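Collaborator request, handled under Task 6.
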Amino acid sequence: MIFLARVLFLTGLLAGSASAQTFGYPDFSSVAGLAMNGGAQQSGNALRVCSNINGDRGSVFYDQSVYVSGGFATKFIFATSSPVNGGGNGLTFIIQNDPSGLAALGDSGSAMGYGGFAASPANAIDNALVIEVDTFFDSPWNDPDGNHISVQTGGTGDCSQDHDSSIAVVSPAFTLQKGTHILDIQYDGSQLEIYLDGSSKPVISVAWSFTAGGTYLTGGTTGGLNLMSGGNAYVGFSAGSSVQAENHDILSWKFISTPTGGPIGTNYCDPANLNSTGASAVISAWGQTIAAANDVRLDVVSLPLNQFGMFVTSQTQGFIPNPGGSQGNLCLGGAIGRYSNSLVNSGSAGQFSLQLDLTQTPTPSGLVTVQPGETWHFQTWYRDKNPTNTSNFTDGTSITFK
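Structure tokens returned to the collaborator:
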């Protein structure tokens, strides 16, 4: 996400009409550009997709269609709160070209704002691929348990919450109802991968094509979707509550279509030392490895709230434990440059972001331009005042430019 702003930009063309698109919400202090349905609403700096009210349901979509057919990557932070009767039912990420467009909304409860019930099957969102975070066990829908992530689709027809419509599912060892969690979804045109909480390996990796479809876990096949002209669709979220209810919140969201760009870099020095949140802060890089394109953004998540920090870089990896009394490890060596003119603050979402200018890369001897063939390593130092007045580091990421 671009720090301090929500940005939409269009660059390049693929196959005539497909364009790379990026947008990001560091938080939801502004909900401009979002179409909200049902009980979806802004709640402070969060996007509340649905509330802990029996029968509440909601959906939210970015108000412009985006390119998905050849590849995309999206990452969002979500949380549940204030459970009623144990909490439920679940939250989803949706890619859809339903006839209702931006107004698409399914039933409440176990339908999670995208599916339909036996008495109202027409309410289900059609022509959709749904990744659900299900926090309640519903045996009529063949749920494996009350704590799972599933990829659901009905092809061009109704998208059902029944697990007969699942092409992949995973049940994490920890509960998805506690704390904040990060879902990172990547698609390269033929393979859908889902990463949870900064994991280096996907928790789900499944073959899927918007053209040819995929294979259900039950063994049958499903067709793909009927996308808009140019391979576009609407993207967003849905959620639903029933007697078992909870608030379903999105805390931040970024999306990039990837005909020309996407997640880049190789992480190392991983995992970083824990900070006061109980997690390790994780750095990631997005954009293009073509130096001349000058299109690289660094993101950091799982930071303590309202703390400042600074990105650093070097062409040499290193490992210095607890430099200057820090609780973390400096994973750079040699000549280390500091982005000291771009101090960042983690704010209420616990995140940093910095759009790099590769023609103004800091070194101890001055600013330089990154050249093709060079490898640069990036890391972030940040303050962490709780429980003691100290600092920490993220892991590192290495990018080889061409």
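The cover message to the collaborator said: "The mean pLDDT is 89. The domain at 262-400 is CATH 2.60.40 (Immunoglobulin-like). Please let us know whether this matches your experimental observations."
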